[in-house]
Specification:
It is found in: Cell outer membrane. This is MipA/OmpV family protein. Keywords: Cell outer membrane, Membrane, Signal. It is built from five helices and eleven strands; from the N terminus they run H-E-E-E-E-E-E-E-E-H-H-E-E-H-H-E. By secondary structure, the protein is an alpha+beta fold. The chain folds into two domains: 31 residues; 231 residues, Porin. It has an eleven-stranded antiparallel β-sheet. A hairpin with a 2-residue loop joins strand 5 and strand 6. The longest helix has 28 residues.
Length: 265
């Protein structure tokens, strides 16, 4: 066999081995212990962001991940996350949210916002054993075509082996496309609703604080009591929807419970 033909044969064999190796690595990653968490959250919150009227809302809790790398701290504000890097002190990965259809209750004439989602990434780290800082950047899918950036810092303390308290500040920013979807008012909507026309830009969305008490009732059952306050800022606060029919001050209080199922693949 000539050197050329021999080299070609070796290259072909190597290329054939790459998919096999990748498949083996993928299988090795999938195999192992997994956890599925299911539950529900009930809360009293504004009917829509910027509303001055409150209503009770129930939403499902869903989380799926591999066991072994237990997250040191998590908040209800965290998007659904999948860590690509996790060394215990730093986590980096993918983040996403499902967005429910939003209607402007009490304001006839404004177009509802379609359901959709947001997809992006997150970065979090622990500057201290009892503090976590987190940032998320997400892009809207179907519901809106803008960017959203959320920043938070939480201090947490285990007052007993089963009870943890936590609290910290939150700041959110967004692009003009996001604000136009949720806070903008077109000329047609203005005529139908009586709310002044508004064409927002991008900038700060809100700033506030949140806290929670978590109770690990059993190894598999967890309950959380939480409360939050945020004040709309920038284009959100300047929106005619907020100025004429709503409120900059937004309060939320709620309770969530979940059950974790452990299984092996």
């Amino acid at each position: 066999m000539s050197i050329v033909r021999y080299s070609a044969a070796v290259s072909l064999a190597a290329l054939m081995m790459v998919p096999a190796a990748a498949s083996a690595e993928t299988f090795d990653w999938i195999a192992g212990e997994w956890s599925l968490e299911l539950g529900a959250t009930g809360m009293i919150a504004p009917g829509f962001e910027g509303s001055k009227k409150y209503k009770f809302t129930a939403i499902p809790v869903f989380s799926l991940g591999k066991s072994g790398n237990d997250t040191r701290f998590s908040s209800r504000n965290d998007s659904i996350s999948f860590a690509l890097i996790d060394d215990g002190n730093v986590r980096v990965g993918l983040a996403g949210q499902f967005l429910w259809k939003e209607e402007f209750d009490g304001i006839d004439g404004l177009d509802p916002v379609r359901w959709g989602g947001e997809l992006g990434g997150f970065f979090e780290f622990y500057p201290l054993d009892w503090m976590r800082a987190r940032a998320e950047l997400r892009y809207g899918i179907r519901a809106h075509n803008g960017f959203v950036a959320d920043f938070s810092a939480d201090v947490f303390k285990d007052v007993t082996p089963d009870i943890r308290i936590s609290a910290g500040p939150r700041v959110s920013l967004a692009s003009a496309d996001f604000f136009d979807t949720y806070f903008g008012v077109s000329a047609e909507e203005s005529q139908r609703s009586g709310v002044s026309e508004y064409d927002p830009g991008g900038g700060f969305r809100s700033a506030g604080v949140g806290g929670a008490i978590s109770w690990k009732a059993t190894d598999n059952i967890t309950a959380n009591l939480f409360g939050e306050y945020s004040r709309l800022m920038g284009p959100a606060a300047d929106s005619s929807i907020v100025q004429e029919r709503g409120s900059r001050d937004q309060f939320t209080i709620g309770l969530s419970t979940s059950y974790r199922f452990d299984f092996r693949l």
